Amino acid sequence: MKNMQKIKLPITDNIATEQVNEFRKFITSPAIIQLSIGVIVGGSLTDLIKSVISFASNLFYYLSLLLFSKNHSAKINLVLDPLRSVFENFLTLCTIAACVFFFVKLVNKFLIKEASETLGYNAQLEETKKLIKTQHETNELLKKSVNLQEKLLNQTEEKKD
Question: Which of 103, 80, 77, 91 minimizes the C-alpha distance to 47?
Fold first, then answer.
């Protein structure tokens, strides 16, 4: 027992920091956030579509009873209940979408360290903006250069005369 050596693994803050950084990059990766948004909002949208179909079906049934049945027992609740469900599911979808939107804004503000990690970051758009800015600066420099050349030409012409 005395001959057994204890193995010591140096635990430093770097290992924990690396793990936290990797987790942060994982949780804030655009692919993960987009998948989460798709699943969350998609589930609510599915419920909304189902309730709209139920409302349309019940409305059709109610109207068919009114039009084609002399002794119908159709009640307006047959239409109003699915309509209430449509309204509830619409509000649920809007609320969930708003919560997801503000959650993504919160993640982008506090967990993202680089602009390229933000959801919705478009590298091509950013490069295009930089190119446009550079082109504008180049155009301004060319205008100044042309003006200076014209002044020099005018001065040399004045000296000749």
Answer: 91
